[in-house]
Amino acid sequence: MTSAVRFLKVSRHFGAVRAVDGVDLEIAPGEFFAMLGPSGSGKTTSLRLIAGFEQPTSGHIEIFGETAEGVPPYRRNVNTVFQDYALFPHLDILDNVAYGLMVKGMGKAERVKEAEKALELVKLPGYGSRRPGQLSGGQRQRVALARALVNKPRVLLLDEPLGALDLKLREQMQEELKSLQRALGITFIFVTHDQGEALSMADRVAVFDNGGIVQQGTPQDIYRRPKTRFVADFVGSSNVISPDVMTALGGEKRWASLRPEAIRLSGEGIEAKVESASFLGAATRLTVDITGSRLHVMLPAGSDIPDIGTAIRLTWQQGDLHYMDDAA
Ligand code: ATP
């Protein structure tokens, strides 16, 4: 099947800065794809390369099987929702949404109809005559979405789309974006530095570091089987266990990761000392010491919480211990 977006050894350097460096990437049609990574890792530059706002220094980009070389942004069938929404403050909402259609030369009656349809899609019917200044942050976000969707792009790019919203609204919009994407079947590619957001929304995640992709896979895959310490640290709250400690535990002399929720208290197993316990509502997090190294243990609600300073024993399933590729 033809990929929606394909990168072949794509680089974008700015002088000595390798913003994007030799990236290979394939995103399937209809996929909800997350680019996850810390600040400066090359996510936004990758998105801008897809949009056509940047050109690769080397390498090759295809969009639905056709080369993107020399194709200007407005002819790429790709639309972007920017983090700051970039709405025109002096235009009303309907004109903001219909703007792209006007530029394309669509007649007024048709463009009003299309813009109204798009506003309905993002659950803002009847808001057309307001100005952006009269809307809440979440509503402005929806307008920005409607303005991109009205052009019926095959690929929608979202740069930290929910970054400006408070936590509750963000969670609500995460669900709405996901169901909208499913209903429309458009390829969504979004940039985030929030691992929870990437894991909960995306079909597949690419983890960026230093201009490169260090791991790509389903959220489950990346969470359970991080390739490197960097991924284990960045995605979730994994225990990263050093080769020395692994040897002391009778394992291989390699770096390993072990998710806190995979560890159980039991009568037998490895001895540990409880250093602290934090009640989190749905779970309790213990910090324990094993052979001079700290581990987090996530106990489900309703578990007996051991006293601080006491010795306990811990077990886990062999399959939950995951060795990583870092040099020992
Ligand atoms: P953030 O989450 O902070 O937006 P990011 O992962 O999206 O980060 P990019 O914006 O892609 O990262 O930037 C990657 C690197 O390229 C950074 O070091 C940045 O300073 C540099 N960079 C990006 N655009 C330019 C430019 N136009 N000129 C020079 N350097 C740039």
From TrEMBL:
<dbReference type="Pfam" id="PF00005">
    <property type="entry name" value="ABC_tran"/>
</dbReference>
<keyword id="KW-0547">Nucleotide-binding</keyword>
<dbReference type="GO" id="GO:0005524">
    <property type="term" value="F:ATP binding"/>
</dbReference>
<keyword id="KW-0067">ATP-binding</keyword>
<comment type="similarity">
    <text>Belongs to the ABC transporter superfamily.</text>
</comment>
<keyword id="KW-0813">Transport</keyword>
<dbReference type="Pfam" id="PF08402">
    <property type="entry name" value="TOBE_2"/>
</dbReference>
<dbReference type="InterPro" id="IPR003439">
    <property type="entry name" value="ABC_transporter-like_ATP-bd"/>
</dbReference>
<dbReference type="InterPro" id="IPR013611">
    <property type="entry name" value="Transp-assoc_OB_typ2"/>
</dbReference>
<dbReference type="InterPro" id="IPR008995">
    <property type="entry name" value="Mo/tungstate-bd_C_term_dom"/>
</dbReference>
<protein>
    <submittedName>
        <fullName>ABC transporter ATP-binding protein</fullName>
    </submittedName>
</protein>
<dbReference type="InterPro" id="IPR027417">
    <property type="entry name" value="P-loop_NTPase"/>
</dbReference>
<dbReference type="InterPro" id="IPR017871">
    <property type="entry name" value="ABC_transporter-like_CS"/>
</dbReference>
<dbReference type="InterPro" id="IPR050093">
    <property type="entry name" value="ABC_SmlMolc_Importer"/>
</dbReference>
<dbReference type="InterPro" id="IPR003593">
    <property type="entry name" value="AAA+_ATPase"/>
</dbReference>
<feature type="domain" description="ABC transporter">
    <location>
        <begin position="5"/>
        <end position="235"/>
    </location>
</feature>
